[in-house]
Design goal:
The complex is a heterodimer of chains A (365) and B (326). Chain A has helices at residues 13-28, 43-47, 50-55, 71-88, 101-111, 135-142, 151-159, 173-188, 190-193, 209-212, 215-228, 240-248, 252-256, 269-278, 287-296, 310-314, 325-336, 353-364, and strands at 4-10, 32-38, 62-63, 93-97, 116-122, 145-148, 167-169, 202-205, 234-237, 261-264, 281-284, 300-302, 318-320. Chain A has 365 residues and is α/β, with parallel strands linked by helices. In chain A, α1 (13-28) packs across α8, α1 (13-28) crosses α18 and α11 (215-228) packs parallel to α17. The longest helix of chain A is centred in the first third of the chain and has 18 residues, at 71-88. Chain A is globular. Chain B is α/β, with parallel strands linked by helices and 326 residues long. Chain B has 2 domains: 2-158 and 312-325, Rossmann fold (3-Layer(aba) Sandwich), CATH 3.40.50; 178-299, Rossmann fold (3-Layer(aba) Sandwich), CATH 3.40.50.2000. Chain B contains 12 helices and 13 strands. A 7-stranded parallel β-sheet of chain B has the order 3-2-1-4-5-6-7, sandwiched between helices. In chain B, strands 10-9-8-11-12-13 form a 6-stranded parallel β-sheet, with helices on both faces. In chain B, α1 (10-23) links the parallel β1 (2-7) and β2 (28-36). Chains A and B meet through α4, α5 and α6 of A and α2, α3 and α4 of B.
Chain lengths: 365, 326
């Protein structure tokens, strides 16, 4: 029996969450020799993190990310590192999890190796944000196997002219991650430890640079929080970058003065999933969280005017409210008064995406 | 408009040059040319003047070439406040510049959009995807772009190689001998013997311009010998003269096949050129890298009609006007 070297490359938190079930599935197949490639910045803190521990991520076979230099210098180093690794390990397939300039660099670097280059988040496009010329579309052009996470993504790839035999509806790996870690998450009961009552709080997580790096938008975010906390207590995940920006623009005090906003710092994936699963609703601009909320059936209000996770909107779980207190307040009222529409889970979000992806890879290599 | 033109291969420079010439005067243009170590820089394109910036890279692998040009382009873009990156073809150098432009949020125009020489090489698809303005050389390229949902951005400007400077001093009927240029696209050591065997059977002198690496390969195969002569690489103008004077061009270079057509010389293509006009009229004859196939193509009757060349800088002017209007 032939054994194939298959690399899974991820560069940021959401990518690591989705890469973990895929690596687990690859480990379970005797014909696969999985390799985990870390393409993010600062490997050591990540490797020591609760997140990597929870996800059972192995030590990286290669660390190709760079944390110093300009964006182009870092990307150039990622590309050469990726190309070297693909050649040295005789890779037969590479699965890219996530979409970013780093992932585009990896796609280009591997495209002319003998490895099949697959994209596990293919077809995601945010209208008006990434568009036709955006990095996500370029990445898909550089990949030979397009693993669409949802039906809208699958249809979009075909409409963009991708060859039918290169496109597959795999489902989202976020559903696999939820399915794999939901039991320990429920056992951990993180909300109780944070003093929160199950289904009686809203979870808020905001990461988008468009919100955090822009003082006008950050002020709007504080207004949204002020409005929503009058309707339901908020558990707000405050990370270093958000905290710095709130302080920088003298908004930290405004948030601290909101009586029903409580800061939480979930350390690992299990703790975060426990909070998300227990929340009445989630306020976010993070694509991966929109997916996870749809899998769990937790109503999601996206604090942006557009999302690349169209499936979560189509299925009825996700409402785009922008950074505007009024529509956010109305949507929260609908949830609290049980008027929020009942969502159905998107097709192929059954927790078996990794299985389908590995089957497809083994058929292709 | 401030415009950065980045070109990698000789063909990219030759195709961009007429467009740059048409844009000059009206716009602020910076030309940056990249050449690989071992390649003879061909920067004497007669027009436009030599590049403002030149970079010679020694990187042996595609990713390292993309990386080098990416870093270099980032610094050029940071210095210049450019409105547009004009790039061409499908080289690693063009991809490096395009990624830098994406990171810097500079709009990209791609000349020779929709051309597909090697389906296994993602560069062409990637550059088309990254570009807001797609300047296509022929209808088939436009149709290819439309099939990918890019018809709104595509514009049929024609082949700007047709607008290259004319070759002076080549009398009509001066056709003589065969010019064989092997760029290494399709002709590697494994198939070189088949090509050389075919060249030896031609009833004419064969001139083979070759750089240091190709010279070593040809010397190992026993050249020069009989009707086969190896010469130093030719710069742009002498190469165009040689193409115009030759009775036959045999090459795996897509650009040289197209140049032969525009110079009125039959070309035997050892690698795809994606050049429908040339193939339809019989001036460009794509063949497999096989001794008998090459001989059969060389012995085929001459094309019944002269090449269909618009000239008058039509393609370059249309490309320049489209970019200016956009």
């Amino acid at each position: 029996m032939s054994v194939f070297n298959i690399a899974v490359i991820a560069a940021e938190r959401g990518g690591f969450v989705r890469a973990a079930p895929l690596l687990a599935e690859l480990r379970a197949r005797p014909e696969c020799n999985p390799r985990f490639v870390f393409a993010g910045e600062d490997y050591v803190p990540w490797a020591a993190s609760e997140l990597f521990h929870d996800l059972g991520l192995p030590y990286a076979d290669a660390v190709i990310g760079a944390s110093e230099g300009t964006r182009a210098e870092r990307l150039a180093r990622v590309m050469t590192g990726c190309e070297r690794f693909a050649a040295a390990r005789d890779l037969r397939a590479v699965v890219l999890v996530g979409q970013s300039p780093t992932m585009l660099g990896c796609a280009i670097a591997c495209a002319r190796s003998r490895a099949v280059v697959a994209h596990a988040d293919a077809g995601l496009r945010a209208p008006g944000v990434s568009g036709r010329t955006g990095l996500a579309a370029q990445m898909d052009r550089a990949c030979g196997l397009l693993l669409a996470a949802s039906e809208p993504a699958h249809d979009r790839l075909l409409n963009e002219g991708a060859a039918e035999e290169t496109v597959m509806l795999a489902g989202t790996l976020a559903a696999d991650a939820v399915a794999r870690w939901l039991k320990p998450a429920r056992e951990s009961d993180a909300p109780a430890r944070a003093g929160l009552q199950r289904k009686e709080f809203a979870l808020a997580l905001v990461e988008s640079p468009a919100t955090i790096e822009n003082v006008v938008n950050l002020r709007k975010l504080v207004d949204v929080l002020a409005r929503v906390q009058d309707q339901v207590p908020i558990a707000m995940c405050v990370h270093r970058r958000l905290s710095e920006k709130l302080k920088h623009w003298d908004l930290a005090q405004s948030v601290a003065e909101l009586p029903h906003v409580r800061e939480v710092e979930p350390r690992g994936y299990v703790e975060f999933l426990s909070l998300l699963d227990s929340a009445r609703l989630v306020l976010t601009d993070v694509g991966g969280i929109q997916d996870e909320a749809a899998v769990l059936g937790v109503p999601c209000l996206t604090l942006a005017d557009a999302t690349d996770r169209a499936a979560t909107v189509v299925c009825g779980n996700n409402t785009l409210v922008g950074l505007d207190a009024e529509p956010a307040g109305q949507a929260v009222a609908a949830v609290m008064e049980n008027r929020y529409p009942q969502a159905r889970r998107p097709a192929a979000w059954d927790g078996r995406a990794a299985e389908r992806i590995v089957d497809a890879l083994l058929e292709t290599v | 408009m401030k415009l950065l033109c980045v070109a990698g291969s000789r063909g990219e420079r030759a195709r961009l040059a007429p467009v740059v010439q048409c844009l000059e005067g009206e716009h602020d243009i910076v030309c940056a040319y990249v050449s690989c170590a071992g390649e003879v820089p061909t920067w004497d394109l007669t027009a436009p003047p030599p590049p403002d910036w030149g970079l010679e890279i020694e990187d042996p692998t595609p990713a390292s070439r993309v990386g080098s040009v990416l870093r270099w382009s980032e610094s050029l873009l940071a210095e210049g406040r450019f409105d547009l990156l004009l790039t061409c073809g499908e080289s690693d150098m063009a991809v490096g510049a395009a990624i830098a432009a994406c990171l810097a949020e500079v709009t990209i125009a791609h000349l020779d959009a929709g051309v597909m020489l090697d389906p296994a090489n993602p560069n062409a698809r990637l550059l088309d995807q990254a570009a807001a303005f797609l300047l296509a050389p022929h209808l088939e390229a436009v149709q290819r772009l439309a099939a990918r949902g890019m018809e709104d951005a595509a514009y049929l400007c024609g082949d700007t190689l047709a607008d290259s400077p004319p070759v002076a001093g080549v009398a009509s009927g001066a056709a003589d001998g065969c010019l064989c240029y092997l760029a290494g696209v399709a002709v590697g050591p494994a198939v070189l013997p088949a090509v050389l065997a075919a060249l030896r059977r031609l009833p004419m002198a064969v001139t083979m311009p070759a750089g240091p690496r190709a010279q070593a390969l040809l010397a190992a195969a026993g050249l020069p010998r009989g009707n086969l002569a190896v010469v130093e690489p030719l710069d742009y103008a002498p190469l165009q003269e040689a193409v115009a004077r030759a009775a036959l061009v045999i090459t795996d270079s897509a650009t040289l096949q197209r140049e032969a057509y525009f110079r009125g010389t039959v070309a035997i293509g050892l690698a795809p050129a994606d050049f429908p006009d040339g193939e339809r009229t019989g001036w460009v004859r794509p063949v497999a890298v096989d001794e008998d196939a090459i001989i059969a193509a060389a012995q085929a009757p001459p094309p019944p009609h002269p090449p269909e060349i618009e000239g008058q800088r039509g393609a370059a002017l249309r490309a320049a006007q489209f970019l200016t209007a956009s």
